[in-house]
Write a structure and sequence with these properties.
The complex is a heterotrimer of chains A (309), B (288) and C (250). With 288 residues, chain B is an all-alpha fold. Chain B has 11 helices and 2 strands. In chain B, a hairpin with a 2-residue loop joins strand 1 and strand 2. Chain C folds into 2 domains: 169 residues, P-loop containing nucleotide triphosphate hydrolases (Rossmann fold, 3-Layer(aba) Sandwich); 65 residues, no CATH class. Chain C contains 10 helices and 10 strands. Chain C is α/β, with parallel strands linked by helices. In chain C, strand 4 and strand 5 form a beta hairpin. Classes of the chains: A mainly alpha (309), B mainly alpha (288), C alpha/beta (250). The interface between A and B is large, with 41 and 43 residues.
Chain lengths: 309, 288, 250
């Protein structure tokens, strides 16, 4: 139960951040929590099941828009967030039926296309979604600091929930089954695993928290438009974070999120125009030299720790 | 009668789509790598043609070889130096790698050339072609003809030359080819470079039709995907058929639903195809 | 007495090739049936048909009263059919005990991962793999991987176990060990179909033989009767020699 202990301790430490009184740090931490949610979520389908999903942006944008639409029709904020999560969950379950029988490249492309299509659909339904002009969300009646703290805690809570779910799933029959599917799907079939159901479950898990994160993000920034919330980088950065931290591990995705975002902060501050290229360079270096992630590097140094897991 | 015009427009576009896609399809079929850089390669080819025309007065049709050559060199270096290290790695790794490389290339172009859309206005355009009731801009038809010619040349190269045979061998069975004495690493690099050449050449042809900007990279990439799934991987005739088909479909969709919907429709088509028959209409067994 | 497994006119085409052609036979409870035939006669395809990996293009398969002809592999597995693969299919990066636990968890009625691991250790004892329990499956020798495959199938608590060339690539000592384990399994009441092309092996262990050639069933019966069958000798060249000499087989 070391994982639970670690989670509680880290969550408690992070929750104390507002005491430092620095709104900038708080906003950065909120972003870190948000990407932690997305990376941990992607790990269910990409790390555990081994299906390289590019659909994260689709779920994020869907959640953002679902929440915006609900709130603009009078639904209060937090229930709208829950509604967004549900929308993402249902969408993933439905989409899974269509694309989870594909393997490898075809699955990756299909999942990538879905986000693009959602973006186009939102663009072409301006009466419903505001179209290309975007949509505003109701403002919270709080001070700037108050808002910063509120959304920080919201994202932190979601991140803790996602990591907690990760811990539970890893030890569960579902997690075991997903790992079997990743290592040998034919053998998994033969051994009695309903691979279709398991993959759909993994895919749905990869969607639900991301949908809520999109909803919280929308409320946080008060205005969203299609290129913002369906940006392909929203799909790619969590993947890179999981690669960085270690595929299929429990805390790896969040560790990767912290490292990548801190790196980005360092670079972005100094080199605004080549920000994207810098991210690209980080990705290339990571893939070429650290394909098993940092966690694996550390494990190699201490073999006893590796055995104990 | 307007349908004939729409179909003709579609075919002209389709020929170019075939050329856009064939290099991408080859790389995917032979190296089992999805080259996200392909779209940016095309844009770079367009820029080469643009600058060659604006500063040196070289007609874009001539620039096919200049752009192609530049991209060939770039492609070879990128593949041999970077991509080759992970060529047998799982999809996640190779896809992420080419994605990262594309971020670098695209950003570099944005910095170097800015996002402003540029176009080539030919000083001596080729006028219009009139076939019955169908009007077609002469330059576009010429571009399409050249695109198809290039595609056919590639086909002949693959079939008739030693290198081409080696490439096909690697596509069919990498290990067996290696056992037969084929230097798979070199073939990988050459194939990728050929793919880049085709992208550059396509870019030069496209420079007189589409506006040139790094922002267009993903658009071309998307078209290449759809053509590959339509026509099957690693197959030149497939790319040709797929390209022409996509061109016609887009042309009609544009007419009936408006040009903004054309992209959505082609993506929807892609998804349906993936669901029903991922190996493409031509049915060639592709890599997963 | 109704048979445990019934095949009725089962066929499978791949394009123009009929890999399995109108095959019908029964397997009764507690039997050990040897499925033999020259290379390419369709034995593995037949197993794939029974377990749902490929759908049959004609005919029916009934298991324990259920029609399993169009069922998905995982459902067939849960009904009590297990099989090993000719080219072993472990979960390579999981440990030996986890591999076996998978069988127990998804088919063998273990209610959670912990219980599955405990059950797995018992099966490892039974198959003699207990000292390898925590090693990754990919690090095992071929013989041990075959035994792992066996242990995994056993953990599924099958009523019918199909062993596809479980002895391929093993030396004579290893074969004897494998046979001993198979006999122990049969003693526990599991019905077994053994695909083999080492005649000595299959003769020593089977109650009954079924012979395939070019996808068709050409003979079935007691080992003695089948081995003397003219059609079998014609098809299965070298049977006479292989019967006396286990190393020489086709």
């Amino acid at each position: 139960m070391r994982s639970w202990l670690a989670l509680v301790v880290i969550a408690a430490l992070v929750a104390a951040l507002p005491l430092a009184g620095n709104n900038y740090a708080l906003r950065l931490a909120t972003t870190v929590c948000m990407y932690s949610v997305m990376a941990q979520s992607w790990n269910f389908i990409g790390g555990l099941a081994g299906y390289p999903s590019f659909a994260t942006a689709a779920f994020f944008g869907l959640g953002a828009y679902a929440s915006a639409i609900l709130q603009n029709r009078g639904v209060p904020m937090v229930p709208a967030w829950a509604g967004a999560g549900l929308a993402a969950l249902l969408f993933a379950a439905f989409l899974g039926g269509a694309i989870l029988h594909l393997r490898g490249h075809y699955f990756a492309i299909a999942s990538l296309i879905v986000a693009e299509m959602l973006r186009e659909i939102v663009n072409t339904l301006p009466d419903f979604t505001g179209g290309g002009k975007g949509v505003n969300l109701p403002l919270l009646k709080l001070s700037v600091t108050g808002q910063a703290q509120f959304f920080f805690y919201a994202m932190l809570a979601l991140a803790v929930l996602t990591v907690a779910t990760t811990i539970v799933i890893h030890r569960s029959k579902l997690g075991f089954g997903l790992r079997c599917i990743q290592q040998n799907e034919s053998a998994a079939d033969i051994i009695g695993i309903n691979t279709y159901a398991y993959k759909t479950a993994g895919f749905s898990l990869s969607a639900v928290f991301v949908g809520v994160a999109g909803a919280i993000y929308a409320s946080w920034v008060n205005y969203i438009d299609p290129p913002d919330v369906f940006d392909v980088l929203i799909s790619v950065k969590p993947m890179v974070m999981v690669l960085l931290g270690g595929l299929g591990t429990i805390f790896g995705p969040s560790i990767g999120a912290v490292i990548l975002l801190l790196l980005e902060e360092a670079v972005w501050r100094n080199f605004l125009t080549i920000h994207v290229a810098a991210l690209g360079a980080i990705i290339v270096v990571l893939v070429l030299f650290l394909p098993n992630g940092l966690l694996a590097l550390i494990r190699e140094r201490s073999p006893t720790k590796a055995m104990a897991k | 009668m307007i349908y004939l015009q729409i179909a003709a427009n579609g075919l002209v576009l389709g020929g170019l789509y075939a050329c856009i896609a064939v290099g991408f399809s080859l790389v995917w079929g032979v190296l089992n790598v999805i080259n996200i850089l392909h779209g940016s390669f095309i844009v770079l080819g367009s820029y080469v043609a643009y600058f060659a025309y604006v500063h040196l007065g070289i007609h874009p049709f001539i620039s096919i070889f200049i752009a192609g050559g530049v991209l060939y060199a770039l492609g070879y270096v990128v593949q041999a130096g970077i991509i080759n290290r992970v060529v047998s790695a799982p999809v996640l790794i190779t896809l992420t790698l080419t994605f990262g490389l594309d971020l670098i290339l695209n950003n570099t172009m944005l910095v170097a050339f800015t996002a402003d859309y540029r176009g080539i206005a030919l000083a001596h355009p080729l006028g219009s072609l009139e076939i019955g009731t169908v009007f077609l801009p002469g330059d576009r038809v010429a571009a399409m003809a050249l695109a198809i010619l290039l595609t056919i040349l590639l086909y002949r190269l693959l079939r008739d030359s030693t290198i081409g045979r080696a490439i096909i061998a690697v596509r069919m069975d990498r290990e067996a080819a290696a056992l037969m004495g084929v230097d798979v690493k070199r073939i990988n690099a050459i194939t990728f470079a050929i793919g880049a050449f085709m992208a550059g050449a396509a870019g030069a042809l496209l420079s007189i039709i589409f506006p040139i900007s790094p922002l267009n990279g993903p658009v071309f990439l998307g078209k290449a995907f759809v053509v590959c799934v339509l026509g099957g991987l690693g197959s030149v005739p497939g790319a040709l058929a797929g390209g022409l088909l996509l061109g016609v479909i887009e042309s009609f969709t544009s007419y009936w639903l408006g040009p903004e919907r054309a992209v959505t429709v082609s993506f929807a088509l892609l998804l349906v195809l993936l669901f029903v028959r991922p190996s493409g209409l031509m049915g060639r067994r592709g890599y997963e | 007495m109704t048979a445990l497994l019934t095949l009725d006119g089962v066929s499978r085409r791949f394009g123009g090739l009929k890999a399995v052609d109108d095959v019908s036979f029964d397997v009764n409870e507690s039997e050990i049936v040897g499925l033999i035939g020259p290379n390419g006669s369709g034995k593995t395809t037949l197993i794939n048909l029974i377990t749902g990996v490929h759908p049959a293009t004609a005919g029916h398969v009934h298991f324990d009263g259920h029609d399993i002809t169009r069922q998905r592999p995982y459902r067939i597995a849960r009904l009590g059919l297990a099989r090993t693969f000719q080219i072993v299919q472990p979960f390579p990066r999981m440990t030996v005990v986890e591999n076996v636990a998978a069988g127990a968890l998804f088919c063998g009625h273990a209610s959670d991962v912990r219980e599955a691991r405990a059950i797995a250790r018992e099966h490892l004892e039974f198959t003699g793999l207990a000292d390898m329990a925590d090693r990754p499956a990919a690090t095992l020798t071929l013989a041990r991987r075959k035994r792992l495959e066996l242990a995994k199938s056993l953990a599924m608590r099958p009523r019918l176990l199909m062993l596809d060339e479980v002895n391929a690539g093993l030396n004579p000592t290893e074969i004897e060990e494998a046979l001993a384990i198979i006999r122990k399994i049969a003693e526990q009441g599991v019905t077994i179909i053994v695909i083999e092309h080492l005649m000595k092996v299959v003769l020593s262990i089977s109650h009954r033989l079924v012979v395939l050639h070019h996808g068709q069933l050409i003979a079935q019966g007691t080992p003695r009767k089948v081995v003397a069958d003219k059609r079998v000798i014609e098809a299965y060249l070298g049977a006479k020699y292989a019967a006396g000499n286990p190393g020489v087989s086709n």
